[in-house]
Amino acid sequence: MEVTWFVKAKIDLIGIGEYISKNSTQSKADEVIHKIYIDASNLGRHPNMGRVIVRIGDCTIRQLISGNYKIVYKVDGDEVLILAVYHSARLFSNVIDLKDYE
Length: 102
Known about the structure:
This protein has about 100 residues and is α+β, with helices and mostly antiparallel strands. The chain has helices at about 5-25, 25-40, 90-95, and strands spanning about 1-5, 50, 60-65, 70-75, 80-85. InterPro entries: RelE/ParE_toxin (IPR007712), RelE/ParE_toxin_dom_sf (IPR035093), TA_system_RelE-like_toxin (IPR051803).
């Protein structure tokens, strides 16, 4: 399966890297971003690896934990769409509005 990143998810990833580099080192930021990217890439081979977000009521929308971050994605036919990436301490409802992806 092909893995496609929505613009919002790319912006999330950039923001995560900037935040980490301000509070730690650029090396640590690069390490975290690389891990998130690799974990998201693996969804192309294993799209059901993440768990379904039950409260949404759509079994095609899932999330995968990557360190302290959650990767929200949608399995759509032969494609995995990365919708958002956010720190697990944040609330899902404050991070993503699924209406933006309909």
